[in-house]
Amino acid sequence: MNTTEDIRILIDRFFDGDTTLKEEQRLYEFFQGPVPADLEELRPVFQGFAHLGQKQEERPKSVSFTRRKTWAAVAAVVAVALGTGIWLKEARQMSIRHFPHPTLCEAFVYGQHITDSTEVMNQVAVTLQALTPDPGITDVDNQLKTIFTE
Question: Of 10, 29, 35, whose CA–CA distance to 20 is shortest?
Answer without folding.
Answer: 10
